[in-house]
Amino acid sequence: MPEVHPSAIVSERARLAEDVTVGPFSIIDSGVEIGPGSVIGAHVWITGNSKLGANNSVGYGSIIGADPQDVSFNAETHSNVEIGDNNKIREYVTIHRSASDGGSTIVGDANFLMTGVHLAHDVQMGSNNALANNVLIAGHVKLADHVFLGGGSAFHQFIHIGQYAIVQGNAVVSRDVPPYCMAHGRNELAGLNVIGLRRGGFAPKERSDIKRAYQLLFRSGGNMAESLAEADKTEWTDVAKLLLHSARHASRKGIMSRSSSAG
């Protein structure tokens, strides 16, 4: 049987794996599913038909599955939060359920959400990401894999954050962050995440191709349409194609540009 503290409230219609631990004063509502090996800390509220996979830890005071902060939201909407495996969710994290009927806010596997992180409704997060303290992610943001977001950074709704991107703390972001790139300040690129690419195991040829694509898109002096037309004349590795794809298929908010002092 799950190990549930006597002060915790767990609905009879919640489904918990046999080895789940639930801490003091936590509330697990009807329809919630929690997978094996998961540890739910004290004063946690999990609601909204949320589904958590295996080996997740949820820290003190966190709330998962609450209604979106949307004044037009109908509380009768059937939506949820879906969280994968091996995620570390620290204290006071909030993850809101989807604002769309049948929709899900999604968190992949092996993510580290530090204290005070907020994921709004319909966020789609991949795996192996690290979000430092008090990162704020608005609705419908898409995060790829292996992203690092610095503490206190804030992200506007509907934007895309590409794989292996890194964003400086306290940045204000309302445009897409391209894959493999570093961003800072207000919607400014600061160059490529060179160290992240090396640590990520990218081959020298791949790193070289990514650099060529970055220079073509953001340092050639032409506009984006001209740069992409020029890119069509060249063969690229698959990883570099991903950077070009992010520019060609940007969100409605558009893609970041390079600051005058950036590399």
Describe the secondary structure blueprint for this structure:
Elements: E1 3-4, E2 9-10, E3 15-16, E4 21-22, E5 27-28, E6 33-34, E7 39-40, E8 45-46, E9 51-52, E10 57-58, E11 63-66, E12 80-83, E13 88-89, E14 94-96, E15 104-107, E16 112-113, E17 118-119, E18 124-125, E19 130-131, E20 136-137, E21 142-143, E22 148-149, E23 154-155, E24 160-161, E25 166-167, E26 172-173, E27 181-184, E28 188-192, H1 194-199, H2 204-218, H3 224-231, H4 238-248, E29 257-258
Structural features:
2 domains, 27% strand, Udp N-acetylglucosamine O-acyltransferase, Domain 2, 263 residues, UDP N-Acetylglucosamine Acyltransferase, domain 1, single chain, twelve-stranded mixed beta sheet, alpha/beta
Overall tally of domains = 2
At the fourth level of CATH, the homologous superfamily of the largest domain is: Hexapeptide repeat proteins
Proportion of strand residues: 25-35%
Query: What is the radius of gyration?
Result: 20 Å
